[in-house]
Amino acid sequence: xxxxxxxxxxxxxxxxxxxxxxxxxxxxxxxxxxxxxxxxxxxxxxxxxxxxxxxxxxxxxxxxxxxxxxxxxxxxxxxxxxxxxxxxxxxxxxxxxxxxxxxxxxxxxxxxxxxxxxxxxxxxxxxxxxxxxxxxxxxxxxxxxxxxxxxxxxxxxxxxxxxxxxxxxxxxxxxxxxxxxxxxxxxxxxxxxxxxxxxxxxxxxxxxxxxxxxxxxxxxxxxxxxxxxxxxxxxxxxxxxxxxxxxxxxxxxxxxxxxxxxxxxxxxxxxxxxxxxxxxxxxxxxxxxxxxxxxxxxxxxxxxxxxxxxxxxxxxxxxxxxxxxxxxxxxxxxxxxxxxxxxxxxxxxxxxxxxxxxxxxxxxxxxxxxxxxxxxxxxxxxxxxxxxxxxxxxxxxxxxxxxxxxxxxxxxxxxxxxxxxxxxxxxxxxxxxxxxxxxxxxxxxxxxxxxxxxxxxxxxxxxxxxxxxxxxxxxxxxxxxxxxxxxxxxxxxxxxxxxxxxxxxxxxxxxxxxxxxxxxxxxxxxxxxxxxxxxxxxxxxxxxxxxxxxxxxxxxxxxxxxxxxxxxxxxxxxxxxxxxxxxxxxxxxxxxxxxxxxxxxxxxxxxxxxxxxxxxxxxxxxxxxxxxxxxxxxxxxxxxxxxxxxxxxxxxxxxxxxxxxxxxxxxxxxxxxxxxxxxxxxxxxxxxxxxxxxxxxxxxxxxxxxxxxxxxxxxxxxxxxxxxxxxxxxxxxxxxxxxxxxxxxxxxxxxxxxxxxxxxxxxxxxxxxxxxxxxxxxxxxxxxxxxxxxxxxxxxxxxxxxxxxxxxxxxxxxxxxxxxxxxxxxxxxxxxxxxxxxxxxxxxxxxxxxxxxxxxxxxxxxxxxxxxxxxxxxxxxxxxxxxxxxxxxxxxxxx
Length: 895
Description:
Layout: H1 2-32, E1 37-42, H2 48-55, E2 68-74, E3 78-84, E4 88-90, E5 96-97, E6 114-121, H3 126-135, E7 142-143, E8 149-154, E9 159-165, H4 167-178, E10 182-183, E11 189-195, E12 197-199, H5 213-218, H6 227-231, H7 241-248, H8 257-267, E13 268-269, E14 277-278, H9 280-286, E15 312-313, E16 337-338, E17 342-346, H10 352-366, E18 373-376, E19 393-396, H11 403-414, E20 418-422, E21 431-435, E22 441-447, E23 450-457, E24 460-467, E25 472-480, E26 485-492, E27 500-504, H12 519-527, H13 529-542, E28 558-562, H14 565-575, E29 583-586, E30 589-594, E31 605-609, H15 622-628, E32 637-644, E33 664-671, E34 674-675, E35 681-682, E36 688-698, H16 709-723, E37 733-736, E38 740-743, E39 747-759, E40 762-772, H17 782-793, H18 802-823, H19 825-835, E41 842-845, E42 851-858, E43 864-867, E44 873-878, E45 889-894
Parallel strand pairs: 4-12, 7-10, 14-15, 17-18, 17-19, 19-20, 20-27, 28-31, 30-31, 32-33
Antiparallel strand pairs: 1-3, 1-11, 2-3, 5-8, 6-9, 6-11, 8-9, 13-39, 15-16, 21-24, 22-23, 22-25, 25-26, 26-27, 28-32, 29-30, 33-36, 34-35, 36-40, 37-38, 38-39, 39-40, 41-42, 42-43, 43-44, 44-45
């Protein structure tokens, strides 16, 4: 009791101390921030008079160093000084514009009156830094992006970030800085904060372009990480993933602009979001003999080893298809486009994140989780993000009518898009409505075999006799017991398009908790809950989507497996000093190393069984993996897990501690939250080979200077893992720059994601790879291609297993790395070109006035090298907003 009271007293004292310090900081900063610069540094032992000039030296502020300074306050934590005149940062002096995706910090023009320069450096003592990072709880950490809008960054011996923030946020950042709670993620620590003025314009790695409707139809949406993912985090902790990707991984001071660009690209070389191709050649190639097949497998047109997949324009009615493929491929011929598995939800402008989460939750329970990914389409993205061409379903959940939004939705509908309206203001663009009540109310719905289902409805009914949209037809689907039509289907009848919309006044995203109802009404709504999901599933099926109400897989522990026992023991020995009762915490991940196989797995808590447990290894053939693993180091020590959210974060807290010979790899049978490019979801069904591999490279080595090539090495290793087997050389696996594995020119089989960071002269890279081995759905897999080859060539090649190909792939990764380190890029490029799809292809550079150029190869950093008709060579990288990296390229450097 006394101990508890003591904790309470300490907690109260701590709060009061922070409150007093905050008031002191706020009062001090407010007095001078508008006229002078405020410089804040960790407190030092020297007196101000002796140390002031040293304290305020900042290599990131250019120009005159002649100034006057005045101590403002000095407590036990920081030294704060007023500097006059106000220091100026010229953004034209090597600063790079910070790309901030939608959903990050929102600026407030009425209070945005402070500009900060944060100087960060690599820690001088890595062990001390990591130990401190692990000691501070996530709830206590304050991430700089949670309290400011990043404007620009600059790498060098001192790493700089320009941040816009309010006065109050300045105080929050200063408080966190003085208490060692300020974080940037990864391995950078803030050394000083200064309020400054900025002038000039920073350079941009991504050219800002206005995207009109025509451009949108030629491009594709890059789905962002849902803002809800950030909103649900602790406000102090922040997310920080984006700045970690853009900033913290930059390795060393670049020697040139190209070096700087290469550092950024090397920092995270990711799999392409999707790919766009034509299937006419493929359909002919599958079986030219069969001209009467009536169906084409839509699953073949969707996602492969991960992420989102492309639009594939099907051939016209004369295209031939094959009956020689696996019987599991149930083809469905479509007259226009087979859409990628992206479901977008638009929830208006006000309270849109909360509304989106409500809709997403119910959609996830109805749709097949392995076939679709649900994203938030924000209002500000309607015209700036090319989403129309790459959306299989648009869900409209905003009852307010926005004219500009409705015009865009109508364009999508007329282009053949599918829409589900949930009490949407867009409804009146298609069909006449009648107001029957001034608020949401409970109705008894009649739909097909369902009758008297209690559901929440909007304020209108539909008049199916009054169609508004031209060339369209309205059909009644459901009504209430009073005869009010509450659900209709609108089909477009214009030749050449097949727009279809289901408009519903029944608000399937709302349940009993969303209305103030009597106990009787509450009970009625709850009793109808299962019918609510069943009816929504039927409507989605009517729109051509695949529904699956199966429960998500249960997370399982990982098992530590090694090719040789000495590797496992060496690994455990290397981390034992970091374990507290067997527990290791880093970031949002916690690993519990234990021999007890009864410890349950949770989303952020993964038990790692140090003894091989048969129940959790029954789906992993260790013998097959080790038999095919011929590497010296890579892949030696395996963390295998049946079901995990993602393997990409699993190695983050381990890579700096493990010995050189550990060869740590994480292998998963199934992922529930796989990660793709830019934070996109990565679809990970059973039968897909999925692993994350730690690779360590000297920074001054051939590959250390061009880390971007790791993505190409891994992609080629996947192809070699199959095609280098005797008899398998004719399996048509190809490479699509920068990091996709393809069947022929048409269908994606896999992708690669690479994250890298720098520590003590070494580049630590985590390679994430996924490719389809034995999963025919939702797309195509390697074993399907082997069966097809057997039928066409009369061979009897055996199917491959995931363990077999992962072992072989890791072996080739190590071999190719060794060759690259010894011989440089040229010999590797020749092998890469033999398997890639792009030799002498022409592409359009939209950033160069739609100039058509010829692809000639890779440059020294792994960028795509193209040549203009005049002979000018340009290095380009993919547009981050495009699914198809070959449709929209950005010029990076003219040679």
